[in-house]
Design a protein that fits this description.
This protein is an alpha/beta fold. The protein has one domain: Rossmann fold (3-Layer(aba) Sandwich). The protein is 41% helix and 22% strand. It is built from five helices and five strands. The chain has a five-stranded parallel sheet, with helices on both faces. This is Response regulator. Keywords: Phosphoprotein. It comes from Pedobacter agri.
Length: 119
């Protein structure tokens, strides 16, 4: 059985690139560019890990993490935050994310970080 990852980023180019790269790692990739829809997507699919952009319109990544952590049915899913923000790592820690990846990211390092949470 393939492990599942949900990717949520408002940048479609990043989402498509990550989808291609992570599918090559034998992951079932589920993508969403609208942060308003991602909680339902996560609840419906129960992924093994979530890759989440920090700065998105309407609902920001840190708000999404807070919603996930407050829902007992999905609260334990590992979350990796992605961001180019200088304080992104600190924000990720403060809201309870399991890890942080700075943008622009190295593809190999990103795959390694994802693999840490699905093995």
């Amino acid at each position: 059985m393939n492990r599942k990852i949900v990717i949520c980023d408002d940048d479609l180019d990043i989402v498509e690139m990550l989808e291609i790269v992570l599918e090559d790692s034998n992951l079932e990739v589920i993508t969403e560019t609208d942060s308003r829809k991602v909680i339902e997507l996560i609840s419906d699919n129960h992924p093994d890990v979530i890759l989440l952009d920090l700065w998105m319109p309407v609902i920001t990544g840190d708000q999404v993490v807070k919603q996930i952590r407050s829902d007992s049915s999905i609260a334990n899913i590992p979350i990796l935050i992605m961001s180019a923000a200088q304080d992104g790592h600190q924000i990720a820690q403060e809201v309870g994310a399991n890890g942080f990846i700075s943008k622009p990211f190295d593809i190999d390092q990103l795959i390694e970080r994802v693999q840490e949470f699905i093995t």
